Each structure stands twice: as structure tokens, then as C-alpha cells.
């Protein structure tokens, strides 16, 4: 199993959720985070002409745990749904998952996901 962590633009969350659900991936965790990468923040020009810099931008982290065989399909769906072509579109991380356990039933492995 693998855990996919995708850091995306907040306005792309519904697109990513829909793309994953179309593939049958319904279980996911969503966390609102702030961060920065190559984008290094943004600068807004205020009404008074004063520049205001924001170096930590709002993002959303989408986490899904899926079978090894489904990783490429899920990554493609996330990429397609979250891409704008502009800097700050996000990152996707793939992390090995050693075990998953469903608390309610005690089931283990992929059936627990």
C-alpha cells in the first residue's frame, strides 16, 4: 500500500475529490495547511500603494491510502485535476504504508482501507 499526500491549491479541492471519487477512491483526509515552495509567496499592492508580502500561502493537503497497483491512476487523476500550469500548483508525495488496521473490525491490510 501507498499513502499519497498531495499539496494543492484550495480552489482545486473539489476537482481533486471528484477525480478520485470517479476512480473509486472515496476515503481521504483533507487538511488545510499553509506553506511555501518555489512560489515563495506573493506580494499584494494595497490601496495606499503599500506592498504587503505573504510568504506562507494557504494550501490543502489531500491524503489517500491505496493499493500499490492504483498509485499511477490516482497520481494522474490528482495531477490532471489540480494543474493550472502556474507556479504554486503543488506537490505530490508517495509514501510506503506498512500496515492499515480498521479499528471497528480489526481487519488488516488493503481490506482495511
Q: Mind explaining what this structure looks like?
A:
- This protein is an alpha+beta fold and 113 residues long.
- It has one domain (2-112): Alpha-Beta Plaits (2-Layer Sandwich), CATH 3.30.70.
- Helix content is 19%, strand content 35%.
- It has helices at residues 13-22, 71-82, and strands at 2-8, 29-35, 42-45, 51-54, 57-66, 90-96.
- The strands form 2 sheets. It has a 4-stranded antiparallel β-sheet with strand order 2-5-1-6, with helices on one face. The protein has a two-stranded antiparallel ribbon with strand order 3-4.
- Strand 3 (42-45) and strand 4 form a beta hairpin.
- The longest helix is centred in the last third of the chain and has 12 residues, at 71-82.
- The mean pLDDT is 91.
| CATH topology group | Alpha-Beta Plaits
Our Rg estimate from Cα atoms comes to 17 Å
Q: How much of the sequence is in beta strands?
A: 25-35%
Could you say how many structural domains there are in total?
1
Query: Helicity, in percent?
Result: 10-25%
Order of helices and strands: EHEEEEHE
Q: What sort of overall outline do the alpha carbons produce when their principal axes are compared?
A: elongated
CATH class: Alpha Beta
Going across the biggest sheet, name each strand in turn: 2-5-1-6
What integer is the average pLDDT?
91
Count of DSSP H/I helices: 2
Largest sheet: 4 strands, antiparallel
Amino acid at each position: 500500500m501507498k499513502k499519497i499526500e498531495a499539496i494543492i491549491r484550495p480552489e482545486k479541492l473539489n476537482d481533486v475529490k471528484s477525480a478520485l471519487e470517479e476512480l473509486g477512491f472515496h476515503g481521504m483526509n483533507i487538511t488545510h495547511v499553509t506553506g511555501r515552495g518555489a512560489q515563495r509567496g506573493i506580494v499584494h499592492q494595497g490601496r495606499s500603494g503599500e506592498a504587503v508580502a505573504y510568504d506562507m500561502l494557504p494550501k490543502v493537503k489531500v491524503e489517500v491510502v491505496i493499493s500499490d497497483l492504483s498509485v499511477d491512476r490516482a497520481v494522474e487523476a490528482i495531477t490532471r485535476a489540480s494543474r493550472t500550469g502556474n507556479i504554486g500548483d503543488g506537490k505530490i508525495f508517495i509514501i510506503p504504508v506498512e500496515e492499515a488496521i480498521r479499528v471497528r473490525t480489526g481487519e488488516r491490510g488493503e481490506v482495511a482501507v
